[in-house]
């Protein structure tokens, strides 16, 4: 992990990843995307981590792709590498075995908005702003559209994509792009509280649930129920499910084995 691009801090089961290009509003250079993907791969194998928080340093969360870098390269192969790397990164967030929370302040635009939409949960400062403004510069936000159209209703996604307008945190919350907005001064604590709550659960159970959620979402109703019924049968037989149920009946705190 390049400390100049991405910082990681672990505390009681929560890994906080800070995008660290504040002078560029944490725009996603190829190197930053690669660093973030690499760190998520490491977290996937780290059984001590039960929740991930992604945040940005400086004045904003993330302003999308580094357009200066892309324009400077100016070759099809580089463009292809950039967008494929971004697509793989967003899919890695979804496939990660533990939940990912986006902690949003300032702006989250274009691929930054895509990052928010790809996260499992998102909490934003009430001063945060969101947009997919590619249409304004002749570069439609097609890859951000993939995550956005899965996070919000179609007409809301099209509104953002076709107008390129900035929306405030309340509007983003109303659309379902974020879970909640809080006063800017309370953002860090709100995210920490949510992350700690999630981190108190069984890692194995979190992994089972997250994987099942994304798998069933794309299936017809009957198939979704069939898949999730099997998931519950398997889940019921895990040590943590047996422990959790016994603890609930016995009115005590469960002791997770994370398996």
Automatic annotation (TrEMBL):
InterPro entries with a match to the protein in the record: ClpP/crotonase-like_dom_sf, Enoyl-CoA_hydra/iso, Enoyl-CoA_hydra_C, Mitochondrial_ECH-domain
Key words of the record: Fatty acid metabolism, Lipid metabolism, Transit peptide
GO MF annotation terms: hydro-lyase activity
GO biological process, one term: fatty acid metabolic process
Function in brief: May play a role in fatty acid biosynthesis and insulin sensitivity.
Family: Belongs to the enoyl-CoA hydratase/isomerase family.
Descriptive protein name: Enoyl-CoA hydratase domain-containing protein 3, mitochondrial
Organism encoding this protein: Marinobacterium halophilum
């Amino acid at each position: 992990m390049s400390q100049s691009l991405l910082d990681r801090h672990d505390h009681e089961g929560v890994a906080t990843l800070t995008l660290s290009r504040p002078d560029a509003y944490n725009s996603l250079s190829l190197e930053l995307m690669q660093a973030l993907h690499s760190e998520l791969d490491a977290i996937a194998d780290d059984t001590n981590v039960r929740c991930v928080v992604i945040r940005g340093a400086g004045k904003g969360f993330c302003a999308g792709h580094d357009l200066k870098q892309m324009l400077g390269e100016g070759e099809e192969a580089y463009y292809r590498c950039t967008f494929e790397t971004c697509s793989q990164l967003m899919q890695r967030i979804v496939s990660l075995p533990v939940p990912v929370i986006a902690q949003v302040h300032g702006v989250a635009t274009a691929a930054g908005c895509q990052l928010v939409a790809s996260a499992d949960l998102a909490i934003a400062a009430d001063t945060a702003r969101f947009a997919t403004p590619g249409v304004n510069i002749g570069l439609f936000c097609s890859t951000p559209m993939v995550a956005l159209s899965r996070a919000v209703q179609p007409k809301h996604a099209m509104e953002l994509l076709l107008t390129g307008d900035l929306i405030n945190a309340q509007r983003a919350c109303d659309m379902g792009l974020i879970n909640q907005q809080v006063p800017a001064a309370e953002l860090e604590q709100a995210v920490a509280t949510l992350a700690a709550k999630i981190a108190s659960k069984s890692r194995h159970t979190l992994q089972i649930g997250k994987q099942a959620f994304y798998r069933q979402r794309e299936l017809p109703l009957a198939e979704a129920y069939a898949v999730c019924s099997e998931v519950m049968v398997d889940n019921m037989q895990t040590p943590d499910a047996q422990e959790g149920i016994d603890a609930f009946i016995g009115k005590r705190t469960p002791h997770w084995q994370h398996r």
